């Protein structure tokens, strides 16, 4: 998450100033720091002489897949439908996320080693955000990527580098009061208004998002960021009317299209936690088809909205099972909706921030015998996610090389499964049956006595070709759906 601040009113600001003075803070010095930072952030440098040129390309990703060759099992490489001048990309079924970990040099070094190893093993997707570890994650990518290119591990056009904006990103290198930072860097420079800054952490102002694109480019040293996500826009639905939030999302999409036309990003998407997977009755629901229409209104049929991101694992499985998205008048799960709308899906929380790396539900574990008897719970959980039809890349937060080695060993394993690697057109029917079974069972559960007489347990669970006893998995794992902005 980004830093969370309650923006004070005038009286509170005066109180803050007095508190700072009593604590011996040199306010004028901090204001000067703020002005310097403001000029740096608001008018981010136009010089790109130190940036790595180019962006991901279809030919580059095809070359990467060819170079990995037989070290990757069938189904590890998939197609991300970018189209246009970029072409359809060949991307790995596993990608490395950079959310977790404290702000420290030692963690930076761990991530740099892990990214290097991941690229050499056959992963060509790196996921980040401006606010991850107070910009340190973007900055370390800016260090490790040129090193890997220089060493011949990767070429720039072979790797998909993703970042996000929405949450306020604070620069760990700046010793400045947060309130001063916001006022001087963003409000006084008119990058956003106070009322556009929601919950002390989130903003969708077009000027702010364009500024964050510049910040991310500078942090990572990239002329062009391959995918830039609008980050968890549903965050604002808890405090702002739905019509206002959708209007802000449309404005954000306009800003992203401008960045694409300027060559600063190659394409964009929307990364969510709840937005695209929860039922339409949920306050945080976002309508994907409607949002896509904004991109078409602004960018035409050649718009650059190509990818969505949402959590998916054996516990948070709604992206494949909850008919949350209306498409052409029919409700369907996110994975199916994205397929029909021509969008690719990358999923986060593949092992639910480590919660599925131990004590995994046996039904889920048993769905991956191809991994062998020595498979770990983490590997089984990852295999469950990466073999679900409709998912292009499953993202994993891997800051340690040992985790890259363990999880990356799946690259050699078949990425489709006999029981769940079904043609996509059959998935909608399977999920419909799944929903009907749940509905019937809920009705039966209202009459417990007849159920007990018939021998049907009150905690009945179900197995489909796609989802192994998910009801049982939820009850045994007992994990809560805690909102997060993590790639895993």
Characterization of the model:
The chain has about 500 residues and is of the alpha/beta class. It has one domain (about 60-425): TIM Barrel (Alpha-Beta Barrel), CATH 3.20.20.100. Helices cover about 40% and strands about 15% of the residues. The protein has 17 helices and 14 strands. The strands form 4 sheets. The protein has an 8-stranded parallel β-barrel, surrounded by 5 helices. Helix 5 crosses helix 7 and helix 7 packs across helix 8 (about 240-260). The longest helix has 22 residues, at about 425-445. The protein is globular and about 60 Å long. The two termini are about 15 Å apart. About 50% of the residues are buried.
Quick recap of the structure?
Helix content is 41%, strand content 13%. By secondary structure, the chain is an alpha/beta fold.
The level of helicity is: 40-55%
CATH architecture: Alpha-Beta Barrel
CATH homology group: NADP-dependent oxidoreductase domain
And the CATH topology? TIM Barrel
List the helices and strands and how they pair.
Elements: H1 10-22, H2 27-42, H3 58-68, E1 77-80, E2 89-92, E3 94-97, H4 105-121, E4 125-127, H5 136-150, E5 160-165, H6 178-187, E6 197-198, E7 202-203, H7 206-220, E8 225-231, H8 242-261, E9 265-271, H9 288-299, E10 305-311, H10 318-321, E11 325-327, E12 330-332, H11 334-341, E13 344-348, H12 362-365, H13 377-386, E14 393-397, H14 401-408, H15 424-445, H16 448-454, H17 470-477
Parallel strand pairs: 3-4, 3-14, 4-5, 5-8, 8-9, 9-10, 10-13, 13-14
Antiparallel strand pairs: 1-2, 6-7, 11-12
Helix pairs in contact: 2-6, 4-5, 4-14, 5-7, 7-8, 8-9
């Amino acid at each position: 998450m980004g830093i969370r601040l309650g923006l004070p009113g005038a009286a509170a600001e005066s109180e803050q100033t007095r508190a700072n003075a009593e604590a011996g803070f040199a306010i004028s010095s901090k204001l000067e720091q703020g002005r310097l930072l403001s000029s740096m952030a608001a008018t981010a440098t136009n010089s790109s002489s130190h940036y790595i040129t180019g962006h991901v390309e279809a030919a580059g990703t095809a070359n990467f897949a060819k170079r990995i060759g037989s070290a990757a099992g069938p189904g590890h490489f998939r197609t991300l439908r970018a189209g246009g001048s970029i072409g359809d990309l060949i991307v790995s079924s596993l990608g490395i996320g950079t959310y977790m970990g404290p702000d420290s040099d030692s963690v930076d070094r761990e991530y740099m080693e892990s990214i290097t190893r991941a690229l050499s093993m056959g992963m060509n997707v790196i996921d980040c955000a401006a606010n991850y570890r107070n910009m340190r994650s973007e900055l370390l990518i800016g260090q490790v990527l040129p090193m890997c290119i220089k060493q011949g591990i990767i070429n720039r056009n072979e790797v998909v580098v993703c970042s996000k904006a929405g949450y306020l990103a604070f620069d760990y290198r700046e010793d400045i009061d947060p309130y001063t930072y916001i006022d001087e860097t963003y409000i006084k420079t008119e990058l956003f208004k106070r009322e556009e800054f929601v919950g002390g952490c989130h903003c969708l102002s077009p000027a702010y998002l364009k500024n964050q694109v510049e910040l991310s480019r500078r942090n990572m040293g990239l002329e062009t960021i391959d995918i830039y996500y609008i980050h968890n826009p549903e965050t604002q639905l808890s405090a702002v009317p739905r019509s206002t939030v959708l209007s802000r999302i449309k404005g954000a999409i306009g800003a992203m299209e401008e960045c694409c036309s300027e060559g600063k990003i190659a394409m964009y998407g929307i990364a969510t936690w709840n937005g695209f997977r929860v039922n339409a009755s949920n306050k945080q629901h976002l309508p994907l088809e409607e949002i896509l229409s904004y991109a078409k209104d602004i960018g035409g049929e050649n718009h650059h909205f190509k990818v969505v991101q949402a959590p998916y694992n054996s516990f948070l499985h709604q992206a494949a099972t909850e008919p949350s998205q209306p498409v052409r008048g029919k409700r369907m799960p996110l994975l199916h909706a994205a397929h029909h709308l021509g969008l690719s899906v990358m999923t986060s929380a593949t092992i639910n921030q480590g919660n599925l790396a131990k004590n995994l539900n046996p039904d889920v574990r048993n769905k991956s015998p191809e991994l062998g008897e020595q498979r770990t719970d983490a590997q089984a959980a990852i295999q469950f996610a990466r073999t679900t039809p409709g998912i292009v890349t499953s993202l994993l937060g891997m800051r340690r090389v040992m985790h890259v080695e363990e999880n990356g060993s799946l690259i050699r394993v078949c990425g489709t499964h006999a029981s769940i690697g079904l043609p996509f057109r059959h998935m909608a029917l399977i999920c419909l049956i799944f929903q009907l079974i749940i509905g019937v069972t809920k009705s039966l559960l209202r009459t417990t006595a007849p159920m007990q007489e018939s021998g049907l347990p009150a905690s009945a669970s179900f197995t489909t070709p796609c989802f192994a006893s998910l009801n049982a998995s939820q009850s045994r794992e007992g994990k809560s759906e805690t909102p997060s902005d993590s790639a895993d």
